[in-house]
Amino acid sequence: MPRISVSSHLPLQVEVDFQSRHRAGFRLFTRERADQDWKFVKEGIADTATILTPMRAGGAIKYEFLFFTESHPFAAVIVFRQNGQMVENGLVSVEAPGNSQFITDTVELV
Question: How do the domains of the chain map onto residue ranges?
């Protein structure tokens, strides 16, 4: 599980950037604490950015990618920024074999 450092006083920009040529889609979810349910934030099929309200350490962001099978590996990056600057450890690489079709993970906010 990737961990990124955030300021609880600033909005968090999340950018999804597809790196491979797969036909793919993504979904993003957030939660403030581990004992809460996930809240849907955004979905899409192309590179995009979204702004989240300030989130505290202990929160999390979950991403899911669904893609069609290809012979080459699936790749995307998720970039986390606050105040226009990438946060510490704010570049998360997402990679999977081209035939796996689905990948999900959680980014922990510290």
Answer: 3-109
